[in-house]
Amino acid sequence: MSPRIRGLRTFRAWLQSRPQAGDALLALGLLLVGLPQMYLEDLPRGEDFEQFQTPDLVNGLLVVVVTMALTFRQRYPISVLMFIVAGELAMASQTYPPSVPDVVAFLIAIYSVAAHRGLAHSALGGLVGFVYFLVSLVVMMPVDISPVVLITDAALVVGVWVLGRNLRLRRAYFAELEDRAARLERARGTDARAARIEERSRIARELHDVVAHHVSVMTVQAGAARRIIDRDADSAREAMSTIEEVGRTALSEMRRIVGVLRTDRDAEQAGRELAPQPGLGDLGELLDHVRETGLSVQLWIEGEARTPSPGVDVAAFRLIQEALTNTLKHAGSQARAWVRLYYTDRDLTVEIEDDGRGTATIMADNGDNPGHGLVGMYERVALYGGELRIGPRVGGGFGVRARFPLEA
User: Fold this and answer.
1) Which stretch of DSSP H or E encloses residue 405?
2) Could you please report the per-residue DSSP string of 80-139?
3) Measured between alpha carbons, how far is 97 from 94 in angstroms, rounded to an integer?
4) Sequence ranges of the chain with CATH classification 1.20.5
5) CA–CA separation, 313 vs 307, rounded Å?
6) Fewer CB atoms near the end CB (10 Å): N or C, the chain?
7) What EC number is given for this enzyme (predicted)?
């Protein structure tokens, strides 16, 4: 960017932050253009124009005072208009001829009243200005005015007022749009946060069920070890090893609960009874239910199946469940779906794809204003240090791909 353009932008920003200074510069510009014209140009010759007084120092001072009143036109538009009308009357009473600065200042004052005040005040100011214009032109002007000139000048005054009023309405319209956009943005952020909080609470409750199961196993094993420790030390040591392994898993899941519960617990669910949580072992039953709805679903399992941690087991199942639910809602009646599980030594990759037509619908429902479904997917995968990719697939349809580490 050139220094000249940068300087112009800086000056423009300075004027926008100081509107009163900008109006003062406007008034000075009018004076620089109009004052020399007052004294250097002769009045038109004719019998009517002989009644005008030749501009003198008093006339120049009155023009300067009237024009410089525009400095306060945005802050006190009605007062400025009244002041300019009073100055115009004072010059007309002394039969000074009209000049460019005071005439333009009068029109700008009418515009300012319409542009910076409400309908009642702007209508009052416009009426005062229009009445003064007619009185000064028809009654006080020592020159005969033709009807064409009168109509043209009256239309100019009315047009300036209408322009100011339209610009005010336009500014109000854009301000309302900006305010509405800001409110929608805040509401969207609030909805997304509420969805995340609710989903985290639900995930935490499911992890709580997993931990409760492991603690129950530890309790049973500890009781068995206590009863047989004197007569069967080997079995007791085996029970202790089981307790140690299950305890480590429970501690790992407890840490995840502490990590996910960053908000207050849901009081309505505080007394909810514990229930077994589904896992990948229940995937066949889930796919059967989906097929009963008419959606064709195929399952592939690649690699040597390994037992993931209980939390990953629940998270992978819920991910598949949510993805297939979205397919049922958005993909269409003729769509097909595929579920793939890839096992490696270190991680589990889950892919759910369909060939339906619901890509745009899913992105509109979830991308711009995320609902509980996608929020739950992201929260679950992130909780276990995994990676998630969601989006349209090549050739049409929609795809979800998640990678879960098998080791915590």
Assistant:
1) strand 398-405
2) HHHHHHHHHHHHHHTTPPP-HHHHHHHHHHHHHHHHHS-HHHHHHHHHHHHHHHHHIIII
3) 9
4) 198-269
5) 8
6) N
7) 2.7.13.3
Q: What is the mean pLDDT of residues 216-239?
A: 77
What crossing angle do the helices spanning 233-260 and 372-383 adopt, rounded to 10°? 130
pLDDT digit string, tens, across residues 86-140: 988 888 888 788 888 888 999 999 999 999 888 888 898 889 888 888 887 776 6
Q: How far apart are CA 186 and CA 69, in angstroms?
A: 43
| Bridge partners, 351 (sequence order) | 340, 401
DSSP-derived pairing of the beta strands 296-302 and 336-343: parallel
Enclosing H/E stretch for 399: strand 398-405
Question: What are the residues facing 339 on neighbouring strands?
Answer: 299, 352
Residue 366 confidence class, pLDDT cut points 50, 70, 90: very low
Which CATH class for the 280-405 domain? Answer: alpha beta
Q: How far apart are CA 93 and CA 90, in angstroms?
A: 5
- Assess contact for 145 and 180: CB atoms under 8 A: no
Name the CATH architecture for the domain at 198-269: Up-down Bundle (1.20)
The DSSP secondary-structure symbol of 42 reads P
Amino acid at 339: V
Report helix, strand or coil for 144: coil
Q: Give the side-chain half-sphere CA count within 13 A for 115.
A: 16
Rg (CA), the chain: 40
**8 A C-beta contact, residue 355 and residue 325:** no
Contact 94, 58 (CB under 8 A): yes
| Continuous segment of H or E residues that includes residue 4 | helix 3-17
Which has the closest alpha carbon to 63: 82, 44, 88, 81?
88
Paired residues of 400 in beta bridges = 352, 390
- The boundaries of every CATH 3.30.565.10 domain in the chain are 280-405
Angle subtended at Cα 404 by Cα 402 and Cα 407, rounded to the nearest 5 degrees: 175
Report residue 347: phi and psi, to 5°: -145, 170
Distance of CA 38 to the CA centre of its chain: 54
